Amino acid sequence: MLCVLGELVVDLIPDAAAGAGPEGTAPHFVARPGGNALNVAVAAGRLGTRVALLARVGRGPLAPHLRRHAELSGVDVSGMVDAPEPVSLAVVGLGPDGSADYGFHVVGAADWQWTAEEIASVWPADTQVLHVGSISSWTAPGCEAIAEVAERLHTSGAALVSVDPNIRPMLAEGFGNTAEDVRRRLDRLVASADVVKVSAEDVAWLEPGADLDELATAWADRGPALVLVTDGGDPLRVARPGRPLLTVPMRTVQVVDTVGAGDSLAAGLLTGLIEAGVTSRTALESIDDDTLHRVLDDAVLVAALNCTRVGADPPTRAELEQARTAG
């Protein structure tokens, strides 16, 4: 089973069909379920993976829709904790190319308050792979409990650990965080990770000016067995310790927006690894190139299909297979 631990966010996405609104008013927005953890869990669920979502569900009229969205995609929501704090909210801006920019309303929200006791009380005993990342993984106080789980699994070898930094600069340098704190917390997580997916935007904040090829190789030498570096529509970089850097071309599609693309790619990757029986560090280190390429090709396709629709809306297994057949 894949266990995803992290945040739930309501994304307010501009409704292009509604236009910009009268002069002096904001565009029309549509509320859609989002957040790294929810997006990854939903994408994996739609691909047919057994997946459990551990998340703190805050108060507010939109909260029930977050839970229902996960349920409708086949996600086990028994690990979702009802919390007294409010739901997190992100206001999304879209560029001409569909790229997303975010403004956040998250102070005092439910997602950052995890405790070790809460996680232990809902932890799925049959977890094979854990995915963590984004804001909840580097924001106190809850990030400490998340890091402890990742370290425990990594040390014991009980499950693979997947990490996605998913940096949001306005929160990484505010919201009670400092850049130094966030980098230190992520260094700790990466050291406990077996799989890391990081974007070029993340790298620009974490290590300004770093060459992406060199960074991918360097991060693979810091502990992870597999490091993926995404760079928009440019090829995916894939690094493994002591092996040549791989590149995987991204699929060309008509992009509506890129919201949830990285989350969909992560879900496609982890789904493929689980289906290939790669649920231990030993298996990941010994995965053959043909299997890895097949898994990566599917992950890239899952991300591309997500980009053809509004918001984080990853494909089903049937849609993936249809697109794969179509080439």
Fold topology:
Blueprint: E1 2-5, E2 9-14, E3 29-34, H1 36-46, E4 51-59, H2 63-72, E5 80-86, E6 88-94, E7 100-105, H3 116-122, E8 129-133, H4 135-138, H5 142-156, E9 160-164, H6 169-172, H7 179-191, E10 195-199, H8 200-206, H9 212-220, E11 226-231, E12 234-239, E13 246-248, H10 261-275, H11 281-285, H12 289-306, H13 317-326
Parallel strand pairs: 1-4, 1-8, 2-6, 4-5, 8-9, 9-10, 10-11
Antiparallel strand pairs: 2-3, 6-7, 11-12, 12-13
Family: Belongs to the carbohydrate kinase PfkB family.
Protein name: Carbohydrate kinase
Organism: Goekera deserti
What does this entry look like structurally?
- It comes from Goekera deserti.
- Keywords: ATP-binding, Kinase, Nucleotide-binding, Transferase.
- This is Carbohydrate kinase.
- Residues 2-315 form the Carbohydrate kinase PfkB domain.
- GO terms for molecular function: ATP binding; kinase activity.
- The chain has 327 residues and is α/β, with parallel strands linked by helices.
- It has one domain (2-16, 29-326): UDP-N-acetylmuramoyl-L-alanine:D-glutamate ligase (3-Layer(aba) Sandwich), CATH 3.40.1190.
- It has 13 helices and 13 strands.
- It has helices at residues 36-46, 63-72, 116-122, 135-138, 142-156, 169-172, 179-191, 200-206, 212-220, 261-275, 281-285, 289-306, 317-326; strands at residues 2-5, 9-14, 29-34, 51-59, 80-86, 88-94, 100-105, 129-133, 160-164, 195-199, 226-231, 234-239, 246-248.
- The strands form 2 sheets. Strands 5-4-1-8-9-10-11-12-13 form a 9-stranded mixed sheet, sandwiched between helices. A 4-stranded mixed sheet has the order 3-2-6-7.
- Strand 12 and strand 13 form a beta hairpin.
- Helix 1 crosses helix 10 (261-275) and helix 10 packs antiparallel against helix 12.
- The longest helix has 18 residues, at 289-306.
- The protein is globular.
- The mean pLDDT is 95.
